[in-house]
Amino acid sequence: MNAPAGLGLGTAPLGNLFSAVIDEEALATVNAAWARGVRYYDTAPQYGHGLAETRLGRALARYPRDEYRLVSKVGRVLDAPPAGSTRPASAFVDLPGVDPVFDYSRDGVLRSIDDSLARLDVDRLDIVHVHDPDGHEASALATAFPTLIELRDQGVIGQVGSGMNQVAMLERFVEQVDLDCILLAGRYTLLDRTGEQLLQRCLERGVEVIAGGVFNSGLLANPSVDATFDYATAAPALVARAQRLQAVCSQFGVPLPAAAIQFASRHPAIVMTLVGARSVAEIEADIDYAEMDIDPALWEALEPPHP
Prior knowledge:
By secondary structure, the chain is α/β, with parallel strands linked by helices. It is 38% helix and 17% strand. It has helices spanning 23-35, 51-60, 106-120, 137-153, 168-176, 196-205, 236-251, 256-265, 280-291, 297-301; strands at 7-10, 40-42, 69-74, 76-79, 99-102, 127-131, 159-164, 181-185, 208-212, 228-229, 232-233, 270-276. The strands form three sheets. The chain has an eight-stranded parallel beta barrel, surrounded by six helices. It has a two-stranded antiparallel sheet with strand order 4-5. The longest helix has 17 residues, at 137-153.
């Protein structure tokens, strides 16, 4: 069976997030997603310091450009580190010889888009998000968003959004910027529902929401003692909460990852749910989870969030 229309592939794992993926496996993963009906692909310069974009572009080159939506991000440009300098720590491994540098200026935005188009080997992006401007809110508002809106109005890009792991700044952007969409990562999940008010505001303003990080970087996929939450080792209390959620799901014969994917997809503000995968087996499993029939009583059993 094919993936639901509201399921997209996030490509951070294809940029060697936490562990390396060989080129052939990355290509096979995208091909498997396509074969199952996935037509939405999300990437960013940060993911593998350009590696995810390059791999995704190679994989999608065989498919008609008009048949899929392609999303990337601005806010980081990739530069070679100064000679003799120590490269910053990264969640990505086996990296090319460039590092991301924050740049929300007009020139930085234009350069970032041009570089992404070159790595992806395409002529346009359907959505461009301002990416993680946590410490750069003023620059994002003054230059990054206006530049993207200008490009959207000229027909150079399709839609303008912002992708973040926090709620407060996204709420301000939704109020102050003419956004088409936002990418909310990890803040509307079975474990963390702090984004509920933001989702309601997006509904009211007609801003579409893409849900990312539905596994909270791993804990809701496999709630073990060494699992990660927000890209760091999960605290024991969080692991215990995830294991309680897993126990409730088991009573209904539902794997926890299936509940995690479908929980996000159920909200009326959310038009797309992203799943990250680093192998054919992972994307096949995620699509199966998204398709699984779930007894509506499970959602009642999972509400409100377990303490």
